[in-house]
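Appendix B.2, paired examples.
Example (i):
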Amino acid sequence: MKLPGRNFLKLKLSDQMDREGPGMSQKTPGLSPGTLIHTGEKRVDRVIFTATEYDAESAELLATEDVEECLRFADTRQTTWIHVTGLHEPERISRLGKAFKIHPLILEDILNTDGRPKIEELDKYVFVVTKLLYYDADRHAIDVQQLSLLLLPDSSVLTFLEEPNPVFDPVLERIRTGGGGRIRRFGADYLAWALLDIVVDHYFSVVDGVDETLDQLEDQFEDDPDSLQAKDLFHLKKEVAALHRLVRPMREIATVLNRSDSELLTARTRPYFRDLYDHAIHVLEEAETLRDSAASLRDFYLSHASNRMNEIMKVLTCFATIFLPLTFLAGIYGMNFEHMPELHWAWAYPALWVVFLLTAGGMFWYFRRKGWL
């Protein structure tokens, strides 16, 4: 949506939630459980595996297209983060899953980008599926893609994205430089929190971007209500509703992590997951406020349009009322009766015009005095 002289969001959240068209792959019904098929859009040419292994003293980073080079990190005792970009090559992701002993049903959910956000706590891992939102301030655009995160018992975290995104670069930089030291000293559960926390932080960026759009529309409505179009307001309401649907599942995910008894979450990271829960509640409240504001703006516009129509109808009704007695008099003197005394009066025609003018002028003056015209 973009209006003249304003910067509005170019991409549509609601459209990206229901992506269809060329390049979209669909799963064939009736396949056996655990059959790995990428369901969604191919958004990169090649799958990239980025492996980061670190402890308090050192960090090693490896980016490669060869999944075999990442398999050696499956047996390490250091904290390991495997980040996969691209989901359209199931056989390579399957090899990675076998190395880290991931159940095929989990891999199936990872490859299904149309799945709903969720969290599963199992004996061997914590599995999170959510939506990653990234607001590009330069292009005033929002990127939506699925993020899958696995916290494993061997101090490993696996993340899966559909295409490259800079959202996790700050976390990677902290690991590389050891900034602050906490992320190096804490384990994989702290890394999982850091990744989810930055996802929620970007929710706030998207909410702020949509809020700015809403503020601009409200200012424009206040300055010139007729400059807005109904399709822009209905589109905005649809976008805000889509944003709310994308953000809402994070509350459930954060709630489960905050109350979890999983041995994969250590006591020293509990406060951070409570903080994640607070942020998730906050961003959801902000999204709900935006939804209410968008609905109110739409209602104001509809009320303004209704009032404007009422004003037009009132003016037309007043003029119709003015002409009603004139039509009555014209109808009377338009009848073809032979014995009409006024027909033979010398001043009958001018007198009738005087009656017309006085009647119309008097009614017009009365309507103006009442404020109807």
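Example (ii):
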Amino acid sequence: MKSGSSSPFSKTGSGLRAYPLPLQFIGGEWRLGGDGTAGQVSNPATHEVLAEVPRASKQDLDDALAAASNAFDPWRRMSAVDRGNILTAAAHLLRQRADELARIMSLEQGKTLAEAKLEFMLSAETFEWYAAEGRRANGRIMPARLPGARQMVLPQPLGPVAAFTPWNFPGLLPARKIAPALAAGCTMVMKPSEETPASALVLAAVLAEAGLPSGVLNMVLGVPQDISEHLIASPIIRKITFTGSVPVGKQLARLAAEGVKPCTLELGGHSAALIFADADMDRAVATCVQGKTRNAGQVCTSPTRFLVHESIHDEFVKRFAKALGDVVIGPGNSPSSQMGPLANGRRVEAMEQLVKDATSAGGELYAGGERLGNTGNFFRPTILVDTPISAGPMCVEPFGPVALVSRFSRTEDAIAEANRLPYGLAAYAFTQSAATAVTVSEELDAGGIGINSFAVSHVEAPFGGIKESGIGYEGGSEGLAAFMHHKYVHHA
């Protein structure tokens, strides 16, 4: 398929292609990589190869940068209402096609059809919310110091943005960067994950269909390090936004510092869930099962360290294990599946190593702890009990269906353990006490706190970590402000 050809998401006689050919989207055109291929997309449930991934050449990257640069001035001058109308139209297309698109996401990432459809629905919601929020990017007028003077603050877009997104939420995480950036008047060059490219590329396709001008959004594929180094070093790029691991986030921050470019970094975590003696046991168990098996545990805010009051510890573990054992595990595109495979073989190997490290250190393997079947990246939900805090799994984010359960007797000890690590993305507590809820809300070091809930990320609210879990915010008015600078004007 040559440059300028039709979208890989064009419909066939039977609907969308089963898995579309990944193509780069540069300057409003779909193209292959100028430097060959960078790897393959595989179905995590079967290991079937779905497609080869293009590898961007330096010319591809320069073309994307030039397209974003050329499109910036007319895009920022377009009214917020007109920009918002395009985002709203794209949201409508996502909702119309959510069932078909969910099958594509499930094929490349492994998550269940229900989770994949919800992800595209949330992506549509994100587009709509920022379409409206862009109209509220208000400046302000301050009381003047002198008669007849004006003192004003004008919010203006920063400029072309370089965005990098991972494979665990391949539709929603790109949407959370694209929507506020475009609503603010910025243009963008995005590198989605080379392992799950189609879910992000569909966002470019629906935006183009909704009338997005050429060059406003560009998507390139290939080797992450090569692309990030080239894009971030370019003087065209004025803002960097990244979701991924702590080590990679630190490296991108160093690259950005060379050009004094602002960053929004949403990095990893190792979230603690405190289960107090007065917790509603039925609700806590059901919620913890859902939180731990969502996307097979491959969620940056997933609960990992379950700190349970000693008076209910044994009952909680018993009921938690039983409920996890009842979860139906299977291919994501099977309607009966409640948890799909891990996204890649690396995660299966990581789970096996975590179990080995925990048991070698004295932890007890209470449930799960093994691969499921001989085909695909399936792993049983796992409970490890009383793993020493010095063991690797208690310090390194599992990013999979592994729950580390420990007991506590004093609230202050549980909070100290929850805050022990250099991460602070999310933390949780299950309690029926208003006083305890206030205490943990104040004392837990995390960007988001869930009380009797793991829902700490909504489009209308700021989402971001502290310590090594990140810099800046996505979501809410803060997410829009991240793509703007506030120009002060004094008119005497």
